[in-house]
């Protein structure tokens, strides 16, 4: 059966981009990974409208990706900061994959603006693809997507 | 220096999502990876408006991620199909990372709808994070983003 016969929405990629498939959302996640947690600081850093940021963060909270915590500085009103949950922390490979691709294809003559290092040893970090039999897979043509029992054929409308 | 002091746009993640940080674009890439190449088939499979798809594909072509090729079936007018370039093929880890996260956090009781297998041996494929010193890194808290010479401080406006 060809992939066109499967329901495009019954797919982990489609479900994931339904939640985080938005430019601003990815940048919010990046800032959270870099330790920027306060609403005001994220808004200022991204240069994004506060109501848009508020909607994006509410969606991330609904999806269980961030939690919101109130904080208050002396003499100021209550404000909010955000932290990644375990589910949020596990989005790190998505950002690493984007960074790795951007480093390779979109860096200028000076090279990539940032790097990722292993805290324990300082060595550069990269993502790799391997299989459970222990093979490293550098050639994407050796990856095969297969349908599992939860896949769905498209409805009669198609 | 805190990350808030660096220019949010001078960043490989920001540059990458400028090109592919859109829900439909990611689904187009997914279909291309699954061998669906013809404009008409992609439009039908995604259920997306043809003008929107056309704009997304033109942007991917401008970014060097796909190439467009004409084809013609007997008696029909010229139509187009799209293929991933090398730069496009190297976006595979982004989709694998999204799929892996969606498999874990967004699958229903039946489990993930699709799996990725190594063509040569049939074993399930996954992404992993490691450093050049050979350590596997399972704990994202051990990743540290560092600025490199191409990083830019934010302008005086901030």
Short description:
Chain A is an alpha+beta fold and 158 residues long. The first copy, chain A, has a domain at 3-90 and 128-142: Winged helix-like DNA-binding domain superfamily/Winged helix DNA-binding domain (Arc Repressor Mutant, subunit A, Orthogonal Bundle), CATH 1.10.10.
Structural class designation of chain A: alpha+beta
What assembly state would you assign to the polypeptide chains in this entry? homodimer
**What's the order of the H and E elements of chain A?**
HHHHEEHHEEE
CATH structural architecture of the domain at 3-90 and 128-142 in chain A = Orthogonal Bundle
Name of the CATH homologous superfamily of the domain at 3-90 and 128-142 in chain A: Winged helix-like DNA-binding domain superfamily/Winged helix DNA-binding domain
* The CATH top-level class label of the domain at 3-90 and 128-142 in chain A: Mainly Alpha
Radius of gyration of chain A: 20 Å
- Average pLDDT, all residues of chain A: 94
- Across the major sheet of chain A, the strand order is 1-2
- Low-confidence region ranges of chain A: none
Apparent shape of chain A:
globular
- What is the largest interface, and how many residues per chain? A-B, 92 and 92 residues
- CATH fold name of the domain at 3-90 and 128-142 in chain A: Arc Repressor Mutant, subunit A
Number of E-type strands of chain A? 5
- Largest sheet report of chain A: 2 strands, antiparallel
Helix content of chain A: 25-40%
Number of helices of chain A: 6
Q: Strand share of the residues of chain A?
A: 15-25%
End-to-end span of chain A in angstroms? 15 Å
């Amino acid at each position: 059966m060809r992939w066109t016969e499967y329901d495009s929405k019954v797919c982990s990629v489609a479900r994931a981009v339904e939640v985080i498939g938005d430019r601003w959302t990815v940048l919010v996640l990046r800032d959270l990974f870099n330790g920027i947690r306060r609403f005001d600081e994220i808004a200022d850093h991204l240069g994004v409208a506060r109501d848009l940021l508020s909607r994006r963060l509410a969606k991330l909270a609904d999806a269980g990706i961030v939690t919101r915590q109130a904080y208050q500085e002396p003499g100021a009103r209550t404000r909010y900061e955000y932290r990644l949950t375990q589910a949020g922390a596990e989005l790190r490979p998505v950002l690493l994959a984007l960074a790795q691709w951007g480093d390779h294809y979109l860096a200028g003559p000076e090279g990539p603006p940032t790097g990722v290092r292993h805290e324990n040893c300082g060595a550069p970090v990269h993502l790799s693809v391997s299989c459970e039999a222990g093979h490293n897979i550098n050639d994407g043509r050796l990856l095969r997507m297969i349908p599992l029992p939860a896949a769905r054929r498209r409805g009669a409308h198609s």
